[in-house]
Specification:
D-Maltodextrin-Binding Protein, domain 2, globular, 3 domains
């Protein structure tokens, strides 16, 4: 059984589309189909339901998928373990990050690539739930996500920083602290409820007997800032995003009074034995970043 065929199978299960899976693997669609047919022939079982297009995995395919994922991850971990002894790491480090944490990804990228110049880094914007699922499926090597509100399980955690919030409008005025009651009185644009940051904000408002119905929602802070700049709406965002609007003449930023516990953001990797040396390297970089931020 070839690892290459297992990789094609796992990629198809993820992409749920033959052409996209072939593109992700860097091969032609006939090559992908041929390798999967050979794999099915070896096992004597049909793994994929198809009728000119991908329909889904068969019962046998669903049973095989987690084992295929583990085999591929074990193979990569083995290679990384040998590399750790004889020289620098090579290959791609896959990182999932919630939108709220994107401003800190630059610092992590610098730390990781400086420590391991043979690596490349691929960052995906994902929800907190998608990050946990992708780690479980060995689709990413680590994630930057919330640690407290919906606590991830079966992971090793390095806290990076506590999240603080600011209120952003396009109206000139005071820059003093604002209460949640003041925030709730404005027409708002916020992340949609599939994002954990939005669920955290809803919880903070609920703790003050408040609720909001935003006029607009999005899945990125760039989109929210564009809406705010139009002058009609306001938003709430993590203070790490202030670097994007620093010096912008249109933006009025006010800190929000925080009298309830705030969420921490941190790096997580799967809690596995043995631990992939690449995951261990990511934990080391994250600990260094946390130490630097703690002294700022």
């Amino acid at each position: 059984m070839q690892l290459r065929a297992l990789r094609y199978f796992v990629t198809l299960a993820r992409e749920r589309h033959f052409a996209r899976a072939a593109e992700a693997c860097g091969i032609t669609q006939p090559t992908l189909s041929s390798a999967l047919a050979a794999l099915e022939g070896q096992l004597g079982k049909r793994l994929v339901e198809r009728d000119r297009r991908y329909i889904g995995l068969t019962e046998e395919g669903r049973a095989m998928l987690p084992w295929a994922q583990q085999l591929l991850a074990a193979h990569e971990g083995m290679i990384h373990s040998v590399e750790a002894l004889i020289g620098p790491f090579h290959g791609e480090f896959r990182l999932g990050a919630i939108p709220a944490a994107m401003p800190c990804i630059g610092a992590f990228t610098r730390a990781m690539l400086t420590a391991h110049p043979g690596m490349t880094l691929s960052v995906r914007s994902q929800t907190s739930r998608e990050i946990v699922r992708a780690i479980e499926a060995f689709e990413i090597d680590a994630g930057v996500t919330y640690l407290d509100h919906e606590r991830p399980s079966n992971v090793i955690v390095v806290p990076l920083y506590p999240e603080r919030y600011v209120f952003v409008t396009a109206s000139p005025g005071s820059t003093s602290e604002v209460s949640w009651q003041d925030v709730a009185r404005h027409p708002l644009c916020l992340l949609h409820q599939g994002m954990q940051n939005r669920r955290i904000l809803d919880g903070l408002l609920s703790a003050h007997d408040l609720s909001v119905a935003p006029r607009a929602t999005a899945d990125s802070y760039i989109a929210l800032l564009a809406m705010v700049r139009s002058g009609e709406l306001a938003t709430v965002m993590p203070d790490h995003y202030l670097g994007l609007i620093e010096g912008a003449s249109w933006a009025c930023v006010r800190p929000i009074v925080m009298d309830v516990p705030i969420s921490r953001v941190g790096l997580i990797v799967g809690d596995r034995v043995p631990l992939d040396p690449i995951a261990a390297a990511a934990l080391g970089c994250a600990r260094g970043m946390a130490g630097e931020w703690a002294t700022d």
